[in-house]
Write a structure and sequence with these properties.
2 copies of one chain form a homodimer. Chain A has 319 residues and is α/β, with parallel strands linked by helices. Chain A has 3 domains: 1-45, no CATH class; 47-253, Rossmann fold; 269-315, no CATH class. Chain A is 54% helix and 13% strand. Chain A contains 13 helices and 7 strands. Chain A has helices spanning 3-14, 18-29, 33-43, 62-75, 96-102, 125-139, 154-160, 176-185, 202-214, 237-253, 255-287, 289-299, 305-315, and strands spanning 50-56, 80-86, 112-118, 144-150, 165-170, 191-194, 226-228. In chain A, strands 3-2-4-1-5-6-7 form a 7-stranded parallel β-sheet, with helices on both faces.
Chain lengths: 319, 319
């Protein structure tokens, strides 16, 4: 591809061309170098969209909530990008979340752009694909980009690091294991949603969250609000959208936002480096005879993996 | 530390010295270069332990099952290492699984060595800590090393890649979301356990798994057996140990094992490279003025992250 073609592709995305944007996203997923060139051109035009991460355990009703949020934003005339990330099926390449969203009411709305991603077995690859896709949706003029993901493990946390505002969805009646998980999510949530708030135990879940917040050694400048919703009936969704607006405002007015912006940039750059060298190393180890010999020596315990890693890095270092 | 000290530390681990081994594991967790030197010496003496990964969603009863398995192995006179990995609390640094195991019956048994790990916010760091710890447990003479982790996301899959045999624990009565997850775990499980098999729906879960196995386009040389257990009462644990033995035997006799051995070595080396450069990049981006300036330029959208990543990699490349 020539430089003029890069500019042409970038211009089409900036004009909101859905086909051109979708094509670019596919190319980015396939890690085509041309696509990265287009993204370089687009980057200066990004930063306008509000990027919201939404995560929670399976069964918490995230998808329904996502659908309701889209409806609310659409009524406000906003253009919405939805990125459904499914780190749970790394091999199948399936993207169940996205399929589900696609089947929903918003699938035919031209003001809603839906894209799904699943891991492809590549370490760290999902975070890169997520931030790439968010950049494209931002550049194509989405006012809101919603990243939906399942669970609250390290993957999900990496994914939501791409977001400005992170919503963690919980449901009443959590078992011990889920209580344990809370320790980690407390530190990533900007807004808590207790969905299915009509169920028994909702008060207790809200109380538990408040209790955990009290345990923090120092009060943060932003104390995550706890919003009760019944997504299936649309209850509480307006309040959630309102709280999302509050957080966005907080980010534009408070010093903490600046720090967070830097953190996000640091994360994206660091992740790109890791993935870049990781891909080269995997290719070298898997597809060159020197690399294969090195792996065989480690497997046969003739060479320790630490020495092997040093050699692999030297052999695949950036030119 | 001098070379003689490395040899001394390695000799203590090989003699099964618990304090020396625990000290080495802590040093490895802290990424002390001395510890890696000791590990280099130990590596040639590893490969004797059967390394078993056990994973499943919160509430599946993994911890109870783990405890029962330990009991069974101890009755057979085996020395057991248990590594509880908790990727769900990356910030708190807590290790809830390990605490739980420690409280159990085997905590005071000198033939059981228990260690817990939690992420420290470092991308890929957990996989490295896992394989390092497994190597030490193997070198100190554990006959079995059991890696227990929560969930079936990408993290967990990376963790279990360190194992020879992977056990996926399910429970009857799975919702839609969990069904979805199955697509991914089908490809990592060597043995399925349907725990709490006395509950309604156990037959259906077993049937669902069988159905999924039928969907595979070609029959693999090892078809994962489905073992029913009621861990709380110890039922089915003997059969599980038996199936673990069958899989170990399969690995020593079948060609597929050789391929798997290479895959594991490739994964460990690749992961060490990613983490090594990742740490250097994070340090450079976060702690040097050039790195901080680069991050600020990206945050202000004066520089795109792709160009920034290229620069960061060049500046932190291996000497």
């Amino acid at each position: 591809m020539k430089t003029s073609a890069y500019h042409q592709a970038a211009a089409a995305v900036l004009a909101g061309d859905v086909r051109a944007s979708a094509r670019l996203m596919r190319m980015l997923d396939d890690r085509m170098p041309d696509a990265a060139e287009v993204l370089r051109l687009l980057y200066a035009h990004t930063g306008r969209a509000q990027v919201i991460g939404i995560t929670g355990n399976p069964g918490s009703g995230k998808s329904t909530l996502t659908s309701r949020l889209i409806g609310q934003w659409r009524r406000q005339g906003k253009k919405v990008g939805v990125l459904a990330v499914d780190p749970s099926s790394p091999f199948s390449g399936g993207a169940i979340l996205g399929d589900r969203i696609r089947m929903m009411e918003h699938a035919s709305d031209p003001g809603v752009f839906i894209r799904s991603l699943a891991t492809r077995g590549a370490l760290g690859g999902l975070s890169r694909s997520t931030s790439d896709t968010v950049h494209v949706m931002d550049a194509m003029g989405c006012d809101v980009v919603l990243i939906e993901t399942v669970g609250v493990g390290q993957d999900e946390i990496d994914i939501v690091r791409t977001a400005h505002t992170t919503v963690v969805v919980l449901v009443p009646g959590l078992g011990d294991d889920i209580q344990a998980i809370k320790a980690g999510i407390l530190e990533i949530a900007d807004i808590f949603v207790v969905n299915k708030a009509d169920l028994d135990g909702a008060d207790r879940t809200v109380g538990d969250l408040r209790g955990l917040q009290m345990l923090l050694s120092e009060m943060p400048p932003w104390i995550p609000p706890i919003v009760r919703t019944v997504a299936a009936r649309g209850e509480g969704v307006e309040e959630l959208v309102e709280q999302l607006g509050h957080h966005q405002q907080f980010l534009t007015t408070h010093d903490a936002a600046q720090e967070r912006n830097l953190m996000r940039a640091r994360f994206v750059v660091s992740n790109l480096v890791r993935e870049g060298i990781g891909q080269r190393v995997d290719r070298w180890l898997g597809q060159t005879s020197d690399g294969q010999a090195l792996v065989a020596a480690v497997a046969q315990r003739q060479l320790d993996p630490y020495t092997a890693a040093d050699q692999a890095e030297l052999r695949t270092a950036a030119a």
